[in-house]
Write a structure and sequence with these properties.
- The structure holds two protein chains of two kinds.
- By secondary structure, chain A is mostly helical.
- Chain A has two domains: 50 residues; 45 residues.
- Chain A has three helices and no strands.
- The longest helix of chain A has 46 residues.
- Chain B is an alpha+beta fold.
- Chain B has a domain of 101 residues: hypothetical protein PF0899 fold.
- Chain B is 73% helix and 9% strand.
- Chain B contains five helices and four strands; from the N terminus they run ααβααβββα.
- In chain B, a hairpin with a 5-residue loop joins strand 3 and strand 4.
- The longest helix of chain B has 100 residues.
- Chain B is rod-shaped, with a radius of gyration of 46 Å.
- Chain B starts with a helix and ends with a helix.
- The chains are: A mainly alpha, B alpha+beta.
- Chains A and B meet through helix 1, helix 2 and helix 3 of A and helix 1, helix 2 and helix 5 of B.
Chain lengths: 102, 214
C-alpha cells in the first residue's frame, strides 16, 4: 500500500517536471523564433526586400487619411458657399460703389 | 472488528492524492507562467523589430503617405478654391444684374443719368483736348443727344472746355461710354462692364473678406 502511494507521488513529481520542462522548451523556441524572424525582417528591410506588406499597409492608411481629408474638404467647400443674404448684399454693394464713379 | 485502521488508510490515500494533485496544479501554474512570460518577450521582440524596420524604411513609408495624402490635399484645396471662385462669381453676376437694372433706369436709388454724366466728365478729364467723341448704346446715346447742351456745360465747367460729339453707331454695352479724341490717338473705355471687370480684378480679396471665405 505504502509503496503504491509513494509511486503515485513519484509519478506526479515526474509529470510536474515534464510539464514545466515542456513549457520551458516551448518558451525558448518561441523566443528563438521571434528573434530569428526579427533579424530576418531587419536584414530584408535593410536590403529593401519584404517590405511590400508594410508599404501596402502605409498605402491603405494613407488612402483612409486621404478619403477623410477629401470628405472634410468637400464639407468645407459646401459650407463656403452657404453665405447669408446680408453678406452677399454687402459684397454686391461694395462692388457697385466701386463701379460707379464717385 | 474495528474500522479504525481502514479509516486511517482512506485518509492516507486521500492525502496522497491531494498532494499529487497539488503538485500537478503547481507545475501547470509554473508552465503557464513560463509560457506567458515567453509570449510577452515575443511581443517585445516583435515591437522592437517593427520599430527597427520602420526606422529603416521610414522614408519609403513617408513617401507613400506624402504621395497619396499630398494629392488629396491638393484636390481638397482646389475644391475650396473653386467654391470661393463660384461664390465670387455669384457676387459679380449679381452686380452685373444690378448694373443692368441701374442702366435701364429700373433702380430707384441710383440715378443712372447722373452716373453717365460723371463717367463722361471723368473720361474727358483723362483724355484732355478740344474735342470728345462719345460712343454709347442706343438708349444712352438718345439721352445724351437730347441733353447735349446741359452735359456739354457740365463737362466744360469741370474740364475747362472741349466739344462733345457722338458716334452715330451705337455700341453693344449695358451702360457707360467709350470716348476718343478727335484724331483717335486716345481712346478711353469707360463702360459699366469694363469698370466691373476692373473692380473684380482689384476687389476680389475685399469681397472675399466680406463673405468670410478668405
Amino acid at each position: 500500500m505504502g509503496e503504491r502511494l509513494q509511486r503515485l507521488l513519484d509519478e506526479a513529481e515526474k509529470e510536474a517536471e515534464v510539464k514545466v520542462a515542456a513549457a520551458g522548451k516551448r518558451a525558448e523556441e518561441m523566443v528563438a523564433k521571434a528573434k530569428t524572424d526579427s533579424e530576418r525582417r531587419r536584414t530584408m528591410a535593410q536590403r529593401g526586400y519584404g517590405i511590400d506588406e508594410l508599404l501596402k499597409e502605409a498605402e491603405d492608411n494613407a488612402k483612409k487619411e486621404a478619403n477623410k481629408m477629401i470628405k472634410d474638404f468637400t464639407k468645407k467647400a459646401e459650407t463656403v458657399k452657404e453665405v447669408t443674404e446680408d453678406k452677399m448684399e454687402a459684397a454686391v454693394a461694395l462692388v457697385l460703389r466701386e463701379v460707379f464713379p464717385s | 472488528m474495528s474500522s479504525k485502521p481502514l479509516d486511517l488508510e482512506t485518509q492516507l490515500i486521500e492525502r496522497i492524492i491531494k498532494q499529487r494533485n497539488n503538485q500537478i496544479a503547481k507545475a501547470e501554474k509554473n508552465a503557464n507562467k513560463i509560457t506567458k512570460s515567453a509570449e510577452e518577450e515575443v511581443e517585445r521582440i516583435k515591437k522592437e523589430s517593427e520599430a527597427q524596420v520602420l526606422s529603416l524604411i521610414g522614408s519609403d513609408l513617408r513617401a507613400v503617405r506624402d504621395r497619396i495624402v499630398g494629392s488629396a490635399e491638393l484636390e481638397g484645396r482646389k475644391m475650396m478654391m473653386l467654391s470661393r471662385q463660384e461664390l465670387l462669381s455669384q457676387v459679380f453676376d449679381e452686380s452685373m444684374k444690378r448694373l443692368t437694372k441701374v442702366a435701364e433706369g429700373k433702380d430707384k436709388v441710383i440715378d443712372y443719368k447722373g452716373v453717365l454724366v460723371k463717367l463722361i466728365i471723368e473720361t474727358a478729364s483723362g483724355i484732355g483736348g478740344e474735342e470728345f467723341i462719345i460712343s454709347a448704346n442706343k438708349r444712352d446715346l438718345a439721352y445724351l443727344k437730347k441733353n447735349l447742351k446741359s452735359i456739354q456745360k457740365q463737362v466744360s465747367d469741370t474740364v475747362g472746355g472741349g466739344e462733345i460729339k457722338f458716334d452715330d453707331e451705337p455700341i453693344d454695352v449695358i451702360g457707360g461710354i467709350v470716348m476718343r479724341n478727335s484724331d483717335g490717338s486716345k481712346t478711353f473705355h469707360n463702360t459699366l462692364e469694363g469698370r466691373l471687370v476692373n473692380v473684380r480684378g482689384r476687389l476680389q480679396a475685399d469681397v472675399g473678406k466680406i463673405l468670410e471665405v478668405i
